[in-house]
Design a protein that fits this description.
- The complex is a heterodimer of chains A (482) and B (212).
- Chain A has 482 residues and is an alpha/beta fold.
- Chain A is built from 22 helices and twelve strands.
- In chain A, the strands form three sheets. Chain A has a six-stranded parallel sheet, sandwiched between helices. A four-stranded mixed sheet of chain A has the order 8-5-6-9, with helices on both faces.
- In chain A, a hairpin with a 6-residue loop joins strand 11 (395-397) and strand 12.
- Chain A is globular, with a radius of gyration of 26 Å.
- With 212 residues, chain B is an alpha/beta fold.
- Chain B has a single domain (33-188, 195-211), classed as 3-Layer(aba) Sandwich (Rossmann fold), CATH 3.40.50.10420.
- Chain B has helices spanning 2-13, 35-48, 61-71, 106-111, 162-168; strands at residues 52-57, 76-79, 94-97, 115-118, 122-124, 129-132, 148-154, 158-159, 178-182, 187-188, 196-197, 204-211.
- In chain B, strands 1-12-7-4-2-3 form a six-stranded parallel sheet, with helices on one face. Chain B has a four-stranded mixed sheet with strand order 8-5-6-9.
- In chain B, a hairpin with a 4-residue loop joins strand 5 and strand 6.
- Chain B is globular.
- The chains are: A alpha/beta (482), B alpha/beta (212).
- Chains A and B meet through helix 2, helix 3, helix 4, strand 1 and helix 8 of A and helix 1, helix 5, strand 9 and strand 10 of B.
- Strand 9 of chain A pairs antiparallel with strand 9 of chain B.
Chain lengths: 482, 212
Amino acid sequence: MHNSPRNFKHNAHQALQDNTIRSNFRGAMDFLRNKRRAAFPDREDFEQLSAQGAAIKQRCLQKLPQLLEQLEQQCHSNGIQVHWAETAQQANQIVQQLITDRGGRSAVKGKSMVTEEIGLTDHLNQFGIDCIESDMGEYIVQLAKEIPSHIIMPAIHKNAEQIGHLFADKIPNVNYTTDVDRLINTGREQLRQHFYGADVGISGVNFAIAETGTLCLVENEGNGRMTTTVPNLHIAVTGIEKVVEFLADIPPLLKLLTRSATGQAITTYVNMITRPRQDDERDGPKEVHLVLLDNGRSQAFADDELRKTLQCIRCGACMNYCPVYTRIGGHAYGTVYPGPIGQIFTPHQLGLEQTKDLPTASSLCGACEEVCPVKIPIPKLLQRLRVESNKPSLRVKTENSDRTEPVVMHGEGSARRRLEALLWRVWAGICSRPALYRTTSWAVTRGRQLIPNWKNGWTQSRTLPKPASKPLHERLKNRIHS
Amino acid sequence: MNSAKQNILARLNRTPLSAKHAFARTAQSPAEPSTEFMTEQFVQALESNHAEVIITVRSALTQVLGALFIEKKISTLLTSERTRHMLPTAEAPQYSEFPESIEIFKQALFNKIDASITTSQGAIAETGSIILWPDSVEPRSMSLVPPVHLVLVEQKSLFPDFQSAIQRQAWSQAMPTNAILVSGPSKTADIQQTLAYGAHGPHALVVLLLTG
């Protein structure tokens, strides 16, 4: 049920009836909200800092093509090899080829949403390469053969009892316990063996710095450092929107990221990688590779409004504050990135045919935009995606091929229903012709008893409003005449 | 794969971008706080992140370390030529140094070392962060793999915040192979939001703040 946003409505319905999911998410969201609130005690400070964060990300997006080329050049001169991938498939192939060429059989992976996005673990498994998740939450989720339900806290949908049972079932010689210290220690011992023996470490990137050719990774556990320090080969995968211009852009973005995500002033580790192991150095990977992934990002980039989607620094605050996410949890979305950011980001990867329910899964309450550290106007973008998915599908031919391509995004117009569109056209026609409007409103008010009491769809949980006995126009006219 | 690069860049370059967003570079940090203020801020931030801070004058360091080794029951300590001369010699733990490469040392590093001691490049008061620039003398796994990490921080190398450290140490002109900020022992809250220390890295971080 989890793996397609097409099942969103069904999934959401089921999740709402699952009391364990409801209480696990409620507890977790309250926890994260309180942490964030304590980290930004002053509303004005937050406004100032987030305005700075938004300005940095917008500046970097304005220069995105140049910055990507600068990043590549800097990385190259540092000894980091850069690869470009247009699609998930290409990225997977690049990573797999790098490992296979070096005879690698085992990989250990630091927490990374982009490798979830491309389904890297499954791809590597098909080629006989073991790929172990090393973030505690991700490890739990992998052990349970599930997918993350939150981008910062992947195993948030599970409680300690569930994890205790999982460990006792799946790991040899481990007894059931709900003691979190003991559970974490079990995870530590298991994963240390993998860090020790892995041929390759795979990570994501929080910020890629064009000025210096540096990959910046942020984490609390140390698994990211292990992954990028112990194995001989390090492969980092990142979306093209993660590039920033200057090293000096990092401090404000870092401050916003960690405070928004977990309410921390800073994470335990900030890891900045600029070169592979040098001749005189005694550890660190001998090779470092960076895979730059497009996968729909250039589509969002092409539109002035939709480009704001790419400002995201993946803190997850929008999901923590979303009344929909809090109630249905991350799995119901059927997407790798759940919650508000997933709703505006995923349509660019999967197309609107697959994701047309996502833009409507919001009350547009605006909480996500209010807490966003880089001021992404998420409600506005949700509305824009509603427009895109309901507009008439007008397709244009590309310059040098017969293929037709959508104007703004793949799958545009796919939620459009002819009957609905026709009804709106009729409605517009009536409203723009006074005589017709008067006649229609006369007929509707006089025949209001005839309107049946539907009990499905929109009216399932709402009372259908009854028209007044006389339209306002008529009543006002009568008042003037009397 | 060069075609992937060309296709991506072509798509990005197709979009005309207005020049109206001419944002200035990130602004300079405000006035310099006093050393006392920074020290207090630094210690408080580290302690709230479950790190231990010991403030000591350099001349008393050897003695302080001796007591620390006993208290922490450290019997094997990973050290380097940078710190070796500061360590106690009587009733001392067994000292070892990082050999020429991790490949021949991995087994011992993962299984036989109780603690490590390293120097630092400086520290950040605002967030209680130690700046590490691991190098050939103090490799990066030294501060990561052993269960206890002892780190020496000079009080005079405290910076008010990350931005000022980057600027005054001119990081962008000469980035090290690996730069790390450490702000506490390794931790996780991935199980039911319950904080647990010693997730993958050291479960204890002891900061020796050297004054004078």
